[in-house]
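FIELD: query
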Amino acid sequence: MYLTLLNGTGFVFNVDDYMELRSKHRIMGAPVGTANTKGWSPYQSTLPVELTKFETQLVLDENIAKLVDKSEDLMAKPTAVKVEEYKADFESRLLGQEEALKTEKLRETERYMDKILTGKRKKLLKQGRQEMAAALTADHVLKEMSENFKFERQNALVEVPCEHLRNHSAQIVTRTLVNVSCLKYRIFKDLWKRGKFVTSGDAFGADFLVYPGDPLIYHASHIVIVLDKPVIKPLELVAKVRLSVIVNKSCVFAYEKENDDGILYQTVAWCNPGK
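FIELD: result
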């Protein structure tokens, strides 16, 4: 499996690769592509999938995928032969769109043929053309539709492919994207190794969100706060724990063991003395 290096992190352009990352390796990422038939929407994003730097570094560390840089090949000036190939390929795709749209128009016409025939016959009768109205058939309507169909290329759909349409070279990236010894990355990796689904917790004022299963099915059960030291100010403690109560999640503080490389987790619950 290969991730494409873009904007300093890994992107997934293949749907099978993404489903394997999500279902087998619990790597969520975030779809950032636009569905060409829907327009941009934060609720209907599609491929490619952008992984966080932590997720990208994790799949590299665990030998789940390799990171490649395709910029040198894809940004190179194409030869005259390549340009002609691209033009021919683009033209064939436009023709394919035209044929598909025409077929759909004819299918829709057949679906409402009774109403169309009734309307056309009434119009001909008003014009005093009784013989034409009586002779009008579905075949005439379909032939007229086919002959008058026009495909305006300025309204053609812009194709956003999941993967590049043609073969191209890439260079393996060997450098690290994050400091693998930093505490936050180590905690992210430790949670993942414990079998958790882990995503960013920025939306909840935390470092991470932990899910009991795929986030498409489950809500997050815990928010995780990373502490450089096992010390926290009382007001900050109250604020974080109350926030977790409001969003119906458990609050976990994660920090490094003293004189050790291990990670400690401490769950703090809010107790209402009035109950």
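FIELD: remark
The radius of gyration is 29 Å.
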